[in-house]
Every structure is written in C-alpha cells, then in structure tokens.
C-alpha cells in the first residue's frame, strides 16, 4: 500500500543543546494522497517534550510542520535517546473528533513510523551509517508480531501544556457564560413583571367596570 505521508527527517530528530535554553527540532509531514489524512504523534517520554500540534489533519498535497521543544534545557553530554512515533490514517471530512477517531482505528489502516532523537554535535561529522538501523515507514498489518505491539505500547500521547492565552480564553468564556445567565434571569424577571402588571390591570379594569354598572 502506498504511504499516506512523507516524513522528514525520516530517522533522527536532532536537538541542539545550548546552556540554559530549551532544545528545538522540527518535523515535516506531507500528505501524499488525494484525501485528508489525520496524524498523531507519540513519544516514549511525554513529560520531556512539547509538541505543537501533536494531533491534526493534513489536507491533500499539503505539508504540516510540527514544532518540538524540550520542556527543560538539556546538556550536550547527557544521555538522550527518546523516540517518537508518527501515526497517519485517512480521514473523512465528517470526522471531527480526533480523540474518538484514533480510538476506533483499525491498526491495519494506520501508517506508523518511529523516529529516534539525538543531540546535535557541533563541528563533528555525523555517522551516516545509521540508515539501515531504522525500518522505513510502513502500514501496520493486523497480524503484526507481539514484539511490534509491545514496542508500540512504549509510546504515549503528548499532553500539550496550558499557556497564558489558554487561561485568558477560559476566563473570557466563564465571564461570557455568567453574562448570558444574568441576561436570561433578567429576561425571565421582566417577563414575570409584565405578566403581573397585566393581571393587575385586568383586575383594575374589572373593578372600574363594576363601579360603572353600579352607578
């Protein structure tokens, strides 16, 4: 089966370690099909990374750039061997809930590729013989081996951290809901007041009509 997306880099994400700075890397996903493709990125160490976006939809022949950064600075001599897993699957336009979408996917329809990561060494020639160490992107078969399934369980979904902007949006939403509730209560109260006034007017009218008849 033809691959759904083209992934760059294919085998290694290189993070540049700088003192007191977060390390960054980019991942490029290109949709190779004539249909929308959903993607989801997992990692073996979700607490160490911020991935934006970690899930999404790529339109036909379009490319999505994934920004990956560490949640804390890393040292150039530190042990650094986390792995990432990129999953892709064709998606219909009607499917909007990506969380539910990924829960219901048949593994045989998912293109999955694992990508290693390492610290970028400055002024040192990289070893170019690693290309045989990682398998090419492939479609997982429904009867995949137990070792593949166990290895896949190592990867966890990335939890995108809340930002100040998210807190502001939540605050505005809460304020909006309060205003709506106040408006509804006022409208209800005004309606009740109008009903009471009408009843009082009717009573007064009936009273005056009786007095007129008596006179």
TrEMBL record:
Any one GO cellular component localisation term in the record: plasma membrane
Residues annotated as domain MSP: 4-120
Region (Disordered), start-end ranges: 135-160
PROSITE patterns (UniProt xref): MSP (PS50202)
Bias kind Low complexity: ranges: 141-152
Membrane topology qualifier: Single-pass type IV membrane protein
UniProt keyword annotations, A-Z: Membrane, Transmembrane, Transmembrane helix
Subcellular location: Membrane
One Pfam family linked to the record: Motile_Sperm
Domain of life: Eukaryota
Any one GO BP annotation for this protein: endoplasmic reticulum membrane organization
Transmembrane region(s): none
Name of the protein in its database record: MSP domain-containing protein
Organism name: Paramecium primaurelia
Origin organism lineage: Eukaryota, Sar, Alveolata, Ciliophora, Intramacronucleata
């Amino acid at each position: 089966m033809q691959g759904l997306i083209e992934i760059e880099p294919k085998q290694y994400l290189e993070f540049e370690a700088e003192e007191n700075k977060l390390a960054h890397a980019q991942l490029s996903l290109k949709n190779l099909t004539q249909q929308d493709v959903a993607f989801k990125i997992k990692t073996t160490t979700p607490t160490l990374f911020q991935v934006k976006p970690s899930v999404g939809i790529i339109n036909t022949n379009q490319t999505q750039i994934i920004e990956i950064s560490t949640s804390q600075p890393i040292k150039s001599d530190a042990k650094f061997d986390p792995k990432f897993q990129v999953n892709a699957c064709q998606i219909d336009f009607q499917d909007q809930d990506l969380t539910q979408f990924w829960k219901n996917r048949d593994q045989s329809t998912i293109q999955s590729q694992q990508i290693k990561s390492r610290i970028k060494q400055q002024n040192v020639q990289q070893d170019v013989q690693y290309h045989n160490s990682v398998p090419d992107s492939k479609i997982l078969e429904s009867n995949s081996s137990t070792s593949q399934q166990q290895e896949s369980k190592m990867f966890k979904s990335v939890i995108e951290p809340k930002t100040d902007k998210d807190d502001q949006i939540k605050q505005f939403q809460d304020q909006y809901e309060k205003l709506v509730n106040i408006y509804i209560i006022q409208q209800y109260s005004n309606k009740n007041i109008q009903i009471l006034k009408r009843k009082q007017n009717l009573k007064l009218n009936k009273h005056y009509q009786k007095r007129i008849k008596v006179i």
